[in-house]
Each structure stands twice: as C-alpha cells, then as structure tokens.
Design goal:
With about 350 residues, the protein is mainly beta. The protein has three domains: about 100 residues, Sandwich (Immunoglobulin-like), CATH 2.60.40.10; about 110 residues, Immunoglobulins (Immunoglobulin-like, Sandwich), CATH 2.60.40; about 100 residues, Sandwich (Immunoglobulin-like). Helices cover about 10% and strands about 55% of the residues. It has one helix and 26 strands. The chain has a five-stranded mixed beta sheet, with no helix packed on it. The protein is elongated and about 115 Å long. About 0% of the residues have low confidence.
C-alpha cells in the first residue's frame, strides 16, 4: 500500500512540473496575443490591379495607385520592387502617418502579346508585410506582316512569278503607303504594287497588300536576297523594310540528280555512270566540250543527243590507274554548251580507291 502511495505521489509531482513548463512556454504567445490592441500600421490599397488594355508594343504607359495607412501607427514602405524589368515603380513617400495617403506610380513598357507583371510593396504592416499590385497589358506590333517577307521559291528563266505580303497597322488606324523602293536585281525584271484593302474615301486603309512580280531574264546568280523599302504617313510606321528571297534554277538541269560519288574501285579498275542533261526551257542545245579540271581519271566517253537535242545522255567513266594509292580522287568536270545563258557547267565527281 505504501508503495502504491509513493507511485501516485510521483505521478502527481510530474503533472505539476508539466503544467508549470507548459505555462512558461505559452506565456510569450499569450502576452503577444494580449498585445494585439497596441498601435500598429495597416496598409490599404484603393485598387491592387490595373489592365492597360491593348496598346502598341514598346509604348510606355503609367498608372497611379493610392496607398493609405488605415492603422494607428506610422506605416513604413521598406521596399518597392517589380517582377520584371518592363515595370518601374515610383513611390511618392515611404513614411505614412496614421490616416495619411501616398501614391505609387507604375510605369510599364508594353511588350508584344498578352502579358502580366507585379509590383511588390514590403512594409512594416505585421498583418500584411507584403502587398501585391498586378498589372496586365496586351502589346501589338507596330505593323503586322503576313507572311514575314517575299519568298518566290525556285524561279525559272523567262517565267513570271509573284509574291504578296500584307502590311497591317497594329493599332488598326488607316494610313497611306507613300513610296516603295525596290533595289536593282540583276538579270530579273521586277515591279511592285501597293494595293489598299477596303480603303476609305481618301484611299487610306489599315491593311495593304504589297504585290511583287518578277521575271528572270538572265542567269547571273543562283540566289537573291533583297530588301524593299516602304514609307507611309502612319506616325508609327514612317519607314518599314520587307525582306525578300528567291533562288533561280539553272537553265540546264540534271535529270534524276546524278551520283556525284561514283563508289569504290581498286587500282586498275573503272567505274562508270550515265548522266542526262536537259534544257530547263525545253530549248535545243549542243554540248561543245567536256573535260576534267583536276583529275584525268574522269572522262566523258560518250554523248548521245535525245529529243532533238533538248536533252543529252553523257556517259562518265572513272578509270583508276594501276598504281593509284588508296584514298579519294575527285574532280570538277567542265561542260561547255552553245546555250548563251548557261554555256558553262562544272559539276563535281569523286571515287574512293581501295588498295589491293
């Protein structure tokens, strides 16, 4: 019985100690809770969002937000920051006594597309240490261009091709295209025409088609890159450039693209293949000369006219000398014709020599 009483005394002692410790642990929280009635600042924003709507990309816009201290202690704005470099917040005052008001000016540089950003306001408000302002905008390009430029693809001599680019004012305001300047394209006749879509009574429109027509006359180069300069009376599109590109087919074309690599051969052996050369405009022509420029192992051994001379079958043979070392042999083959606009071709051919 005495042992049982001793146990109960220890249990009672443990409960008392636990209660005392618990009281000490909870005392700070209780004290803090009791202090809620002390003077404290409190931040209040009349609005915490603003949508600038649709604007031109790159334009700078601003909006002012009012801040009020509705608490009963001074409000201190410790830090004002933004979520991106496109937004610059400017604060009028950082210390606000009770019931005082201030402003934060948000300057936004509009970016293309639907965008959003935030302004963070860090203060000494214990209940709301960080307030957030949200901004939204939709930026449109100064001018929309569809497609991104003139692209004629592959053009043929003597055949007229056209390409159209549409210019649309990003703000939807009508304008007039004043001038279009196309650089000289050697060997190509080109004209440009600006056409308004649904023009008003003054011939102005928010959408214009630029129609470029080109006809290759001479094969002076195989690729062309150019820039069309456009000037308008739109205040945001005074000058605009439209890029263009085209490739020009050679007047003589290989039928069934030839194998430029003739394969593998051992010293003393030969490999041959047939090539068919045709006029791209279906004109009659003659092959006047064929000769290798680098390696005499490659030779045209036969020329056979087809279709009254509109096509020619050439038999190319690569004869590997008996003492040739292992490795690659290659040459450019000069083919001279009587076609004035394309009298020289120089295709390349190669072969891999394997030692015995």
């Amino acid at each position: 019985m005495a042992k049982s009483d001793a146990i109960w005394k220890w249990v009672l002692f443990a409960l008392v100690i636990t209660g005392v410790i618990t009281w000490f642990v909870l005392q700070p929280a209780s004290t803090k809770k009791a202090a809620t009635g002390d003077p404290r600042p409190r931040i209040f924003l009349d609005r915490d969002t603003h949508d600038f709507g649709t604007m031109m990309s790159g334009e700078k816009v601003t909006h002012r937000f009012k801040i009020r201290n509705v608490g009963d202690a001074p409000l201190i704005l410790r830090k004002i920051s933004a979520s991106c470099s496109c937004t610059v917040p400017k604060v009028e005052r950082t210390h606000l006594p009770p019931d005082a008001t201030g402003t934060i000016e948000a300057e936004l540089t509009v970016r293309t597309g639907r965008r959003s950003s935030r302004i963070y306001i860090d203060s000494n408000d214990p209940d709301q240490p960080r307030a957030i302002i949200q901004l939204a905008s939709e930026g449109i390009k100064t001018v929309r261009m569809e497609p991104s430029g003139f692209d004629f693809g592959e053009m043929r001599l003597g055949q007229t091709a056209s390409s159209t680019v549409r210019l649309t004012a990003g703000d939807g305001e009508p304008f007039t295209i004043l001038t279009t300047k196309l650089p000289e394209l050697k060997g190509i006749e080109a004209t440009i025409e600006a056409r308004p879509l649904e023009p008003d009574a003054d011939g102005r429109s928010a959408r214009w088609n630029l129609a470029l027509t080109a006809t290759p006359r001479d094969h002076l180069q195989s690729e062309f890159s150019f820039t069309l300069d456009v000037s308008t009376d739109h205040p945001a599109i005074r000058k605009h450039k439209v890029e263009g590109y085209c490739t020009l087919r050679h007047p003589l074309q290989w039928i069934d693209e030839p194998r430029h690599f003739l394969g593998v051969a051992r010293p003393g052996k030969s490999v041959q293949t047939e090539l068919i050369l045709a006029s791209d405009s279906n004109a009659i022509f003659k092959i006047l000369e064929t000769r290798p420029l680098h390696d005499d192992a490659f030779k045209i051994i036969k020329i056979e006219p087809l279709d009254e001379g509109r096509r020619h079958r050439l038999t190319l043979r690569a004869e590997v000398p008996s003492g040739a070392p292992q490795g690659f042999r290659a040459t450019r083959l000069r083919i001279r014709t009587d076609l004035p606009i394309a009298n020289i071709l120089e295709p390349s051919f190669s072969i891999h020599v394997l030692a015995r």
